[in-house]
Amino acid sequence: MKLHFCFQRAVLCILLFAFAICISAQNLTLSGTVTDTKGEVVIGASILVEGTNNGSITDLDGNFTIPNVSPDATLTVSYIGYKTQQIKVAGKTTFKITLTEDTEVLEEVVVVGYGVQRKSDLTGAVASVKTSEALKSTPTGNVSDALQGRMAGVSVLSGSGDPSQDNTIRVRGINSITAETGPLVVIDGFIGGSLQSLNPSDIASIEVLKDASATAVYGSRGANGVILVSTKNPEKDKLTVSLNAFANIKTVPNTPTLSPYEYANLVNDFGKEYFGYENNHYYTPDQLAAFQAGTAGFNYAREIYRTPAVTQNYELSVAGGGEKTTFLASLRFQNDEGIIKESDSSIYSWRLKVDTKIKKWLKAGLNIYGYYRENKKPKIGEYDGLIQQATYFPNTIEPQDENGNYNNAFFDGSSTYNPMGHI
Predict the structure, then answer these.
(1) How far is it, in rounded angstroms, from Cα 112 to Cα 129?
(2) How confident is the model at residue 159 (pLDDT cuts 50, 70, 90)?
């Protein structure tokens, strides 16, 4: 009896072991590769067997392996910025998965310093501008011109109109009375630089970080805000040659000033009142007649300006490459005539960007740009500007005397500088 019982137990164990082997043989070990639509491997993508904790993530080569998977299971493949996919195993063991970008998710994410945050968490803290769209409506050689009025909390001021000076940018007002209040400029991750030195056609987007949480990674340098500039990347297997040229014209509206005849009468009235003379003290009747006829006098408030001032901009770029190496080279020349005569600025800039893929897990790149500028401007006094002098200098006095010397005196003989002498 005892021997019979032991025999039954042995048979039962054998049957259970065989059944377990049968069940185990039905499960599969899956392997595969995850790439994007450009053929680049996706590192760190999540592959999870639906309804279980069994899964894996892709390695540096985009490969994954998942053991003990039911032939009827469903795989969930996901990665930040890409659409999540549901893939049925259906008895297969090898998979080649291609993920597509989720543009809606990407639009909700903003790069901040070394990481990303959702736009919903940064409401009012980040302003973004796509320069390609801005430049369509505002052709300009200075990127900051295209930013005027496009970002809440960011003011762009043209300043004095001197073509050699960059625009003044303020993020949420002025934060200091004596210290520098301009924002920090970061170009492709490199701190420092000027927006005016960049070719507008090379810029893909500009983000402005405005609050402490967004600028914290830059420390005290980001106290006045941070401008993040991202430049364009060339497309693979496509050679693109682009030429962009445009011109702007600047003029000054008519400035309301007294005519020489009106000014001469005003001066004579002053002389009568101040000195008590009944006859004309400063200007004779013959001079008044010449002023009235328009044969004498000089309009300084108009003659110091160019009519018009022309800005020319020429940009040439070549981009292309193959599967492993891409490049982008660009040249720019800009000549900006100032609205005041004898003031202008010429800019020469160039850029070279090369990216190469050495291994699947190793990439190298080169990103350099150069900038050269020539400026010319009239002599302007330290305490008295040219425009102010042209406004109050007597327009009854000619710029030069018979000997070609500038008339550096008021109508009463007191010394001053003639505005045309600065030009």
Answers:
(1) 15
(2) low
Q: 133-154: per-residue pLDDT in tens?
A: 666 666 777 777 777 777 777 8
CA 396 to chain CA mean position, Å: 49
Residues 6+ apart with CB under 8 A from 124: 152, 153, 210, 211
- Give the separation between CA 109 and CA 409, rounded to whole angstroms: 65
Give the side-chain half-sphere CA count within 13 A for 285. 1
What is the b/e burial string over 343-371, where b = at least 16 CB atoms within 10 angstroms of the residue's CB? bbbbbebbbebbbebeeeeeeeeeeebeb
Task: List for the chain the helix, strand, coil content (%; round to 5).
Answer: 25, 35, 40
Distance in angstroms (rounded) separating the CA atoms of residues 397 and 415: 13
Token digits of residue 335: 């000549």
Per DSSP, what are the bridge partners of residue 320?
327
**423, 340 contact by CB (below 8 A):** yes
Place of tokens 């790149």: 365
Contact 191, 221 (CB under 8 A): yes
Flag whether pLDDT at 380 surpasses 70: no
Length of the chain in residues, anyone?
423
Nearest of 241, 248, 184 to residue 215 by alpha carbon: 184
Looking at the chain, the whole-number percentage of residues with pLDDT higher than 90 is 14
Helix 260-275 and helix 285-293, axial crossing angle in degrees, nearest 10: 150
What is the rounded distance in angstroms from the CA atom of residue 83 to the CA atom of residue 102? 5
Our CA angle for 280, 281, 287, nearest 5°, is 65
Answer yes or no: is pLDDT of 32 > 90: yes
d(CA 77, CA 55): 10
The backbone torsions φ and ψ at residue 23, rounded to the nearest 5 degrees and listed phi first, read -65, -45
Cβ pair 346, 380 in contact under 8 A: no
Q: Say if CB 419 and CB 407 are below 8 A apart.
A: no
pLDDT digits (tens, 9 = 90+) for 259-314: 899 999 888 888 887 777 666 578 888 888 999 998 898 988 888 888 888 989 99
- Global model pTM greater than 0.70: no
Structure tokens given for 72? 């009827």
